[in-house]
Amino acid sequence: MKELLSGNEAVARGAVEAGVKVAVAYPGTPSTEILETIAQRHRSIYAQWSPNEKVAFEVGIGASLGGGRALVTMKHVGLNVAADPLMTFAYTGVNAGFVLVNADDPEMHSSQNEQDNRIFARFAGIPFFEPADSQESKDMLLAGYEVSERFDTPVMLRMTTRVSHTKAIVELGEPVSVPERKFVKDPAKYVMVPANAKVRHQVLSQRLMDLQKFSEATEWNRVESNGSPVGIIAGGVAYQHAKEIAPDFDYFKIGFGYPLPIERIRKFVAAHNIVLVVEELEPFYEEQLKIAGIHVEGKKYFGNLGELNPTRVAQGLYDAGLIKSVVRPGIEAEKLFPRPPVLCPGCPHRGAFMALRKLGVAVTGDIGCYTLGMLKPLDALDTCICMGASIGAAIGIEKVNGSAKGTVAVIGDSTFFHSGITGLLDAVYNQSNVTVMILDNGATAMTGGQEHPGTGHTLMGAPATRTDIETLVKALGVKNCRSVDPYDYEATLKAIEEETKNPGPSVIVTHRPCVLMPKRIMDEPFVVDLELCNACSACFRISCPAIAASPETNERGHPKAVIDETTCTGCMLCAQICPTEAIVLKSKFVAA
Amino acid sequence: MANKIHNILIVGVGGQGVLLASEIISDVAMRSGMDVKKSEVHGMSQRGGVVTSHVRIGKKVYSPLIQEGETDFLMAFEQAEGLRAINWMRKDGIAIISRSSLVPAIVTSSKEFTYPDDAVAKIKKKLAKVIAVDADKIAAELGNPRLVNTILIGVLSNYLPFDPNLWVETIKSLVKPKLVDLNLTALERGRNISYETIHT
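^ Those are the sequences you sent over. The predicted structure of the assembly is below.
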């Protein structure tokens, strides 16, 4: 049976075939669809969103120790959050199999950095598999559980955006039978006090030597011979790009990437005139091979920034003198306006950013749709570092009196639950004069509207206890906590103005659901009365996709505005800032 | 040719249905027994940004990405996005362009950028075979703006070596049941449009 599956969907399918009992994650592009697919199509597996990746990882540890195969998925930066349990879980090892699916995002299609997490696997001392397509994503997940249980180690499946989000044909398999395991008390193995951890570090060291032997023997690392004097060492999607450009070279295809099969590669290199390593991001394989005294080149030709593609690989092979020509586009590119992503029509975040821009305060931002508030013409965000960083950064700015007009941290509901709570606790504890705006839209919106502790539902659709943001904020010790309707521009403006003047930490919560969830805010759209519109462009500057330039112009040739009735949600924001009151509800509009 | 690859690039703006279109084309390829890969980027791109999907079909497909300059078929849901992707085309490639315009706020709110009012004409200057389709108008005639997708697929289907019935089967399996008939009508409308029909 064959299906067209993305790498993520294939991992979800693999989880069923591998007899996974528990799947845990916090959403993060490009990994999100793995858990969504499990919750939609493979409901025999218990799947849950955790508030953040660290908790998700720890739930996975517990499931493994409790005797059930565990799957934990996250994006690359999620592993920074979960690094703490990872580093020590590598010492204890597993009971039932544990696979961490880590999705890197070379090129930063939807991320704040492009770190190469193969280095994390080596740092922690855990093996990783590197699939090159959907079929391998599924099959290597199953192999991952075998390796995890055989060698008593957590295993990483290292995906990248182009593997996670490429659909390809997958031959499905049957579920394997998994031996029953129970929780066993074994403090010497699982209680990592120094005395035990010293012993376990030795175990980890020995385990890596055993895994090295496995790596030399496994078929996941394979030689593809075409009788060429040129050899390519590659794994993941880089292998596919290279095969595309140079199908006739010899290949050492890496599927099991750490520890590397050094001796097999040494033989492969010795049998060829020249061997290049084609890998995305860091020279992870190249450096290890060079340290082992094996003569290869790689980054010299392919670079270490952004993602590879067939053209870049072809250029590298050409520069190395291995191919005779590179395809050059026959048609020149056209220089055009940019089209960056924007906040949706009716997005409740827009009102907050309009007010923040007006007040000229320092605005520390966070990770989510609202990061789009940085783009022109809203232009209302000063920082974006990582999940939860808005609050800590605001406290720091305020401690050095960095902003005369006050400092406001802007954070979404899901990000607040993920890692904003401790930042706010710091603001309370250290009596910081920051204002924190929690933009509650009732979803983890950027990744597609997932549930979280504040939504009242779980990933699998069951009702859940809803954590109330204001109650939580007050319990942390915040005295000034109020809510405001972000569709009421004047009230939002006033709330921020007052709270930035209040001493001590303040919190302003806006509650309006993500517009991708309900259909409309008003039953009818707004329209522009062209008689009244004077082409001042105030509504253009709120960056709403439903507002466009009308063919009609004022006497100076500036375009008046027109509202697309099908996408206008009736949020009212543009009507509130229009100086000539030209924007009115459709039913109230009387054509002259 | 031993391994002739059909490179199809589908471009548009977040929310226009680019991903469903590439899903349908890929599914038809799989049903016909070909190898296929389709690649796109989710996340940020869904918020009104540019959406691009690469579909590659052949006996054996390695890379999920088309090389710049190697696109056989460009399918654009928005004319300026079609123009933006023009350098990805082979000179003998075919571009299927919906004559629709979406002007972003970044253009309307600043003097720095302008929207090309003659995108289709510019594409025609650079490429011999251009099929500009009034897909919005046809979709409106059929009573549902979301049909642009299927109309363009209908046009493209004239140039791909697949049994016409496979397109019908795939649409039946991927589209909501109550919308199947309407989509099949849209597919047929598209199938009646080709470079030859509009240039002879």
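Chain B is about 40% helix and 20% strand. The beta strands of chain B are 6-13, 35-40, 50-58, 71-76, 89-98, 129-133.

Shout if you want it in another format.
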